[in-house]
Design a protein that fits this description.
The chain is built from eight helices and 20 strands. It is about 20% helix and about 35% strand.
């Protein structure tokens, strides 16, 4: 056993009174005050997250594009320089090794951003499938800090620290070597909360100074530091999948409602044959959202029952602060995956009534 690692912002979190927990081998802030307050700050003003535990791989060279095309279902060739997209690493069975973001830094230069718990496995997966592709694959995770500024006031807060055209920066586009508070960052219009916002990739040594400058600039706008608990409730309200919950090595993009990440016409990639078959035949189960209609909260692993039959388990479940109801996700047989289907969630000895509802639960105006 090894001690959990610390991000470059560990001292900032401790100084701010955060409750620190071991998450994927990292000491991370789960909350500073309460997840309710932090969640609502992101929806109404802004929140600042440390996500430096995430992994970043640099893939460069004449064969980098072809390698990524073979590994992922989305069409990397369609990315322009300074554009990113959401995609996946799939097994031969078209199930998830991980989900990831792919950034095109140059014609033959890419960055892949992966989940913290999967860094070593993902890097080994990519490296083992490099074959004859002419490229260099490097793990830059330890060289990269990552901050996420999210919420409707994010643009106003960031505008005081950079001369970038933030209003002109489109969703899933980014700027390289952008000055933010006197520090060079990759500034990306991305996030995981369902709100507008930005993610800043920068040198770990610069992260504390930028964190403090953002907190200072955001004070008048209601900015709060936000922890893992709020990040999870925010992403679930927004219907965003989380590896180990909605997606894993047992689920495919078509089952998970992520068919928009699959571009079958681009050519061959790992898992394509299975997805071609699923598209033709349909899937036997689908990911759905549900709302608890009684008193109580469903949590991951609780049984999902229709009639007298157990049909699935809860993938994610929480109280949704924005909606003020308990929500969750589960996989249901396709025939039952219709809005309005009545469910029962087994919580210990209790039975909670619930119903299938549309995803996402929340969508910003």
């Amino acid at each position: 056993m090894t001690d959990p690692r610390k991000t470059p912002l560990y001292d900032e979190h401790v100084a701010a009174g955060a409750k620190m927990v071991d998450f994927a081998g990292w000491m991370m802030p789960v909350r500073y005050t309460s997840e309710m307050d932090e969640h609502r700050a992101v929806r109404s003003a802004a929140g600042l997250f440390d996500v430096s535990h995430m992994g970043e791989f640099r893939i460069q060279g004449p064969g980098a594009l072809d390698l990524l095309q073979s590994l992922t279902p989305n069409n990397v060739a369609k990315l322009k320089v300074n554009q990113a997209h959401y995609s996946a690493l799939l097994t031969e069975d078209a199930t998830y090794v991980d989900d990831l973001l792919v950034y095109r830094l140059g014609e033959d230069d890419f960055m892949a951003v992966v989940n913290a718990a999967n860094i070593d496995e993902d890097f080994a997966w990519i490296e083992s499938r490099r074959g004859d592709f002419d490229c260099i694959i490097e793990d830059h995770s330890d060289r990269t800090a990552l901050l996420a500024l999210q919420g409707p006031k994010a643009t106003a807060i960031l505008a005081g620290l950079t001369d970038a055209d933030l209003d002109g920066l489109r969703y899933y586009h980014f700027l390289q070597d952008q000055d933010v508070g006197g520090v060079k960052c990759l500034l990306s219009r991305t996030g995981y909360t369902g709100e507008e916002g930005f993610e800043l990739y920068l040198d770990p040594a610069d992260a504390p100074a930028v964190w403090r400058k953002l907190m200072e600039a955001g004070a008048e706008h209601g900015l709060k530091p936000a922890g893992l608990a709020a990040r999870d409730t925010l992403r679930l309200e927004a219907g965003m999948a989380l590896y180990g919950h909605e997606i894993d090595r047992t689920t495919t993009p078509y089952e998970a409602g992520l068919r928009w990440t699959v571009k079958l016409k681009k050519g061959d990639f790992i898992g394509r044959d299975v997805l071609v078959q699923q598209k033709a035949d349909g899937v036997e189960r689908k990911l759905v959202g549900f709302q608890v209609t009684g008193r109580g909260i469903a949590r991951q692993g609780h049984q999902v029952i229709v009639g007298d039959e157990e049909v699935g388990v809860v993938c994610s479940g929480t109280f949704a602060p924005t909606l003020e109801v308990a929500i969750g996700t589960t996989y249901l047989p396709t025939a039952l995956a219709e809005e309005g289907t009545e469910l029962t969630i087994a919580v210990r000895k209790r039975r909670l009534p619930a119903k299938v509802v549309a995803l996402p639960f929340y969508k910003r105006a």
